[in-house]
# Entry
Amino acid sequence: MSGLRLDGVTFTYPGAPAPALRDCDLAVEPGTLTWLRGEVGAGCSTLLLVAAGLAPRHTGGTLTGRVTRAGTLGYVGAEPRTQLSGVADTVFAEVAFAPQNLGWPADDIVRATWASLDRFGLVPLAGRHPEQLSGGEQQRLLLAALDVLAPDVWLLDEPTAALDAEWRERVEQWMRDEAGRGAAVLVADGRTGGQADGDAASGPPAREVMLEAGRVWQPHPAAASPRASSPRAAVPVRPSARPPVRLKLADASFRYAPDRPVLDALSLEVLAGEVLLVLGPNGAGKSTLLRLVTALAHPVSGSVTSAGRDTRGRGPEDLADVVGTAVQDPGVQLFERTVRRELAWGPRVLGWPRERAAARAEEVLARLGLEAAAESHPLDLPLPLRKRVALGTALMVTPQLLVLDEPTAGTDPATRDLVAQAIHEEASRGAAVICVTHDAWLREVVGGRELVLGRRES
Amino acid sequence: MPPEKPPGAPADTPTGAPPPPLRELAFIPLAVALNVAMGVLASQLGLPVFLDTLGTLLGAALLGARVGMAAGLVSQLITALQVGAFMLAFAPLQLLIAACGALAARAGAFRRLPTALLAGALTGALAGAVSSRIAYTLFGGVTAPGVSMVTATLRALGLPLDLAVAAASISTDVLDKVVVFGLVAGVLAGGRADGRSGGRALLAAAGESVWDLGSARSPFLPPVGSSALPPAQRPPDRSSARPPAQRPPVRSSASSAGATALALTLAVLLLAYLLPPPWGPVGLAGVVAVALAGAGQARALGRATAFCILPWGFLVVIHVVLGAADGWTVALAQGARLYAILAASAALLATFDGNAFLEAAAARGWPYQLAYLVVAALQAIPRLAARAERILEAQRLRGLRVRGGPLVRARALLPLAVPLAVGALQEVDARAMALELRGLGVARRTAIAPPPDTARDRLLRWGALALVLAALAWRVRG
# Structure
């Protein structure tokens, strides 16, 4: 037998009240590609961990049923950053890490490493430090680091989540090529569409398997799954009188070093009820703009006025009662024992009475579909739900200015809908929203004003 | 290809050689980086504590005394690389703290805050007594700046020097360990939340073992082995799209992977205490300065000088101003030792190249796990320090005040330390899986670009050894 086979697999995490997988049967034959679909929390990641033999050995928990897998294994989890070797100081060394460990002959390692780097467009980055790559580059690096082993079984958890459209296409093609080479490929992917397009028909056999609340079911090929989210026109209603200015930059400049200007005499206003989307390539100053707006940094010349307060002489904590900020990586702020306590913590720090903070937390939980997760540890949640919690912390104070940094990156359709809805509601309520995003869908749905920052030549 | 057993069965035990302890290998570098990052955080908050044993203690509490001790030793090794080789003398202290932490966890002291604080106070008293002894013997009373200040004050009040050092050291250490033990209890409390899932297996396991110590046998997860990845001894044959470049990118690095620099630094460390004071150490400092200047390491010299100014001042105050008539010889000898060791260590750090070190380890068959620990810890330190910075910003964005009175700053510690520690622990599982999937420890590692070892390097190393032996022989005879 070859490929991958799950027979009657049920898996429960340690201390969890209910199984994460229930009685799952699944077979992935060599030379085929299987898409595993499911909402957040449906158990896709768990199924891959169990299939890889990593759960329960690494995670603890109990497993019943039978997992059979033949040949070498390539598993790439959902968050590439934590799967780096931790010692390689170049992209090349990261990819060579596994073959070196396996004791391959040196010449073979060098050849195979260059080939895999080439497959993922990493040859120009071969000398860079893995930790200094962008999220998408790290994702490609991790794929290359296992591709170098040419595994017989691929288990990929959201391998395209951090990629742009071009690379999503290329990685999907690579997955088909791998199946064509004879590998058994199982891909968990929350989005739909993409691979269903024309050329898939000419590739190796591909099929979809749905996972719902830990159970596998296979849709009939004819029944097309409806797209979970539909773009919605959201034109903020503009009252006739000019609404108040919520954010004002007047000739604001910022530089990290005298010869490295990042923002040069930028002036802009965002009014109550307005949404400003900030776009541009990496290094264009998007993050810097958000740092200026939230008073984490201060302009070297010009001024920034957020929610009516000049940021000069103020720090972020002096704006926190009127400016709500959702950081890109929720892991850096979540620390409380439950989601409910996490949401209430910010207002409590700001001096709200306990009851008021608790009542507001319930409202925010309901708005973001987090009721079921309210008593979970925030860091136990999958990334999309953690992003919702981070958004929730920003909404707690009913901010006059809402600052969002890539709110939909790495999320699922349901969360993306909720984010778009929250932006829409906050703007309608009279807040100004400034949002850095790469997400074309969000741009289309929110349809706010756009500020495109360009990369500087220097 | 060896046949695959069905994985996932609870009794899944790897065959053949014992599996490398991947979870420990993944954990220790992060614990080390956590130690360093917490030290940075404490000084950023301006708190009069070090907090730089949080990782060591979490290791001891979660994975046992041995892991805590290993984390402590690697921390000390890296501190020695960064601050000066004499810091190695404090290694016993790390072992002591790890042992205390493991004992406290075993006794269930982290279950409640008061018992955690009490255990911290006891550990702090013990650690302070030991560290003051080491500091007194080695440096004549100079320790961390804050502690030195207390020492000088007590000395001015008329206390004998050794007592003054002990009192200053113990009071600081008690406060420090009380806070750190409290933080450990706070981090472990996170492990108790219901609905534990994948990423926090380590904490989940701790949640059971630390809280339910009724079961004497550790209910930790089964050992993580290397059964997921059958060792592929030959690369798969797969034609690539185009023949790419032929050579791996190699950085210009010190020729012998720092082995020579390491040997010379250790020789300086030993000679500083073997040569007769005060002129032996002074001469050594002169030789080190000339040699480093000649080798183009002027920056290392500058670093060492900057580091030395404050301790020199304290030496003068303690030994010359407040000390006996011949105090100046003690001060001179200690000052010269400090300078020689710091300068050599700074040069070592400046030339240390992690990748070259790994390659050398692979090429010469040094224990790869040890090399992995050191290099991974060196890489994790800037990562966690940057993360600490982002956590600080994110919590300030939610209104947390980190400036103001001592109480305000002390209260800021928990929302900053917990995401830092839990984030580091969370990485452990993913990293352990990644190391397993990528075959760490499966076979003898291939070196693809081992650094050359020149005749000059070998000569320098043997020469250093001969010098140390000669000094030792002279010392023993005379």
